[in-house]
């Protein structure tokens, strides 16, 4: 589970644009993570710029692009990129050991269709990702802020989901997953009220974990202990 962003929200769920809007979480890098950043950042790292990325230039081709916010240590993101070489993948993470671990795995897997940001997700999404450019946006196991008085801090809020919608192509999908049932209910409540989206669930609730989202070790352990995981997928319709 990863802190997806350093952004904060006020009591009305509005994103607070702070003067210093983010703090990169350095953490303690292992030697391997440090070496991976040195070796692979030139090819796979994206430096933040407030101008929209030219995805064709970045990846050297035109292809559907998947963006993941808060990829943690990056194992599942690398697996997705490896298993779908026809797609482009971009990951955003503020925790530097996660960047190092992801780049180490990506280098070992020899993936060429993955790029990563070490930056605040809200800034990247708002400024660096062109409107209508994403085939899928992934938000897996964000901080649940499980205490009721902290629910407003959850990233899935009306303003955020409309920002996501703007970045998706028509037909693009916002895919969320959480292991907190209460957060899944919150996600559904926000998404059902959001304009321009359609739930991909035939029951109007959650979906089965799709093949493109790998089962994490953390999740597999949860299943053995009888813990639930909820996947929610909404498509941009307008």
Overall description:
Keywords: Methyltransferase, S-adenosyl-L-methionine, Transferase, tRNA processing. Its EC number is 2.1.1.33. This protein has 238 residues and is an alpha/beta fold. It contains eight helices and ten strands. The strands form two sheets. It has an eight-stranded mixed sheet, sandwiched between helices. The protein starts with 7 loop residues before the first strand and ends with a strand.
Please tally the helical runs, counting DSSP H or I stretches of 4 or more residues. Answer: 8
Strand content: 15-25%
End-to-end Cα distance, whole Å, is 31 Å
Number of strands: 10
Widest sheet: strand order?
A: 3-6-5-4-7-8-10-9
Poorly predicted ranges: 17-22
Label the overall shape: globular
Going by helix content, strand content and strand pairing, the class is alpha/beta
User: How can the largest sheet be summarized?
Assistant: 8 strands, mixed
Report the average pLDDT across residues: 90
The helix/strand series, from N terminus to C terminus, equals EEHEHEHEHEHEHEHEHE
Pathway: tRNA modification; N(7)-methylguanine-tRNA biosynthesis
Keywords: Methyltransferase, S-adenosyl-L-methionine, Transferase, tRNA processing
Function: Catalyzes the formation of N(7)-methylguanine at position 46 (m7G46) in tRNA.
Binding site for S-adenosyl-L-methionine: 68, 93, 120, 143
